[in-house]
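Bug: token stream looks shifted between consecutive jobs. Job 1:
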Amino acid sequence: MWRRWGFFRQFKLNLIRLIRLRAEPDAVARGMALGLFIGMTPTFGVQMGIALFFAFLLRQNKIAALIGVWNTNPLTAPFIYGLEYEVGRVLLGIARPYNLDAFTYEALTELGWQVLAPLCLGSLVLGIPVAAIGYALTVRFVPVMRQWRIPRWPRRRQEDISSDE
């Protein structure tokens, strides 16, 4: 059954990795804040590489940075990027583009800075508070979470495995 719920399983495994880190809560929180900030940038697809690069460069916790990037995943990315675009558009005073028939690569290159500038500004405006809140929550919750006993996933019984074959 749990194999059908891959997203929840991945979330639990990432939580276990975060809890088992043998670093101070402050170090874990700094790595998480870095990952959350990079996760808010419009670099979907290469965020984990960027987070790992900056974690090495800034000597932050690499695993926490990689886990923090998961704030933008295929389920949340449309909402996050849409909110970032709207925030940036309002701050720059740009009207909504009316000639956007489809959200494709060709349409995006035609619009150019009308989309990219508000998206980048919105990611900075929203990324800083998200990183700060993530830092504060991680510093407080890492010591608490280390005391939790997280149970294993239910294992399939042998007769269940043989009946599937």
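Job 2, same session, no restart:
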Amino acid sequence: MTGFININKAAGVSSAREVAIIKRLTGMPCGHMGTLDPMADGVLPIGIGNACRLFDYFLTKRKKYAATFKFGVGYDTLDTTGTLEVSGGRVPSEEEIAAVLPHLTGEIMQIPPKYSAKNVGGKRGYELARAGVDFTLPPKKVNIYSISLTSRISADEFSFIIECGGGTYIRSLCRDMASSLGTYAAMSALTRLSSGAFCIEDARPSALLTAENIADFIVPTDSVLPFKGIYVGGNDQKRFLNGLPVPSPEADGTYKIYLENGQFYGLGKAANGCLKVETKLC
């Protein structure tokens, strides 16, 4: 049993809890393909078995979020689950917010939240922050493909649709948006609508899954990989499975590898006329 489960995570539970449920139901090693904060809900792809080896691949995938930002307040966690540090800040108008959005899109440098899983000297950022340790996190390059202001839902809350690359913190985007408007803000809600090939329309709450039906919801590993498929057979297959390079007419790049019986094997890397195993996934 290998592949992915597209979980629709509920708000208020951890990503680790959802992984533990799938591990119990399948009896296989499992891991999420990019965590969601406990307050967030939405798409949480969970790899089963060897599919977990694609974690780094999914971290780079494009993601889409529906987010709500509350203006005029500041929290230590950059979301409304933390400790309130400042209130009474100015609430900008819809026109003011719309005017700064183009300056927050594209390839930008972003400072991650201190309350995050970022590693700082062998410790998680949230561990140090909770312990009251003073530290700084370096900015990192992220891609914000688009931000749309969709509505004003209360006197101080606005909703947005955000498309971004992997590694982006929506909480940091909220902080930076408010800063550019001369005020404060905190993320008050977040739903992940898609992550790579996984979308919320196809996601299932873990509460609906059982040991008897979970196989019906497993997404085959090869179906979510956007690479050309090629077959390796005969003597080349024997050499390839032993980790040896085999001749290949394919252009340099990554390919989905199928064996001569049609079985999906994993990913191979073509370079300089040769093909080698990159990641075994079957």
